[in-house]
Amino acid sequence: MREAIVKNPYLKVLVMEGYFDLATPFFAADYTIDHLDLPASYRQNISVTTYDAGHMVYLPVDGLKKMKSDQVTFIEKAMTQ
């Protein structure tokens, strides 16, 4: 991911993670992002959202609504930068 972001400074990344995800633990993504050794200007291109759910964050209706809202916000923000 570091190589892709450095090669394309316009690349935006949205990480959506569930607190109770046993397949891809949420803290693993946070740890990875924190250890990419990216300058602050590149780090701001990575957005992270968390959900009170497991791996399928969209299964609870509240999670699905939050997921849609987070995606819309991410896309709108990416289009204005």
Task: Please characterize this protein's 3D structure.
It is a single chain. The chain is α+β, with helices and mostly antiparallel strands and 81 residues long. Helices cover 48% and strands 15% of the residues. It contains four helices and two strands, in the order H-E-H-H-E-H. Strands 1-2 form a two-stranded parallel ribbon. The radius of gyration is 13 Å and the shape is flat.
Quick rundown:
This protein is of the alpha+beta class and 81 residues long. It has helices spanning 2-7, 26-34, 40-43, 61-80, and strands spanning 13-18, 46-51.
Order of helices and strands: HEHHEH
- Give the number of DSSP strands: 2
Strand order of the largest sheet: 1-2
Main sheet: strands, sense, barrel: 2 strands, parallel
Mean pLDDT: 92
Low-pLDDT stretches: none
Strand content: 5-15%
End-to-end gap: 20 Å
Rg is 13 Å
Helix content: 40-55%
- Secondary structural class: alpha+beta
The general outline is flat
Helical stretch count? 4
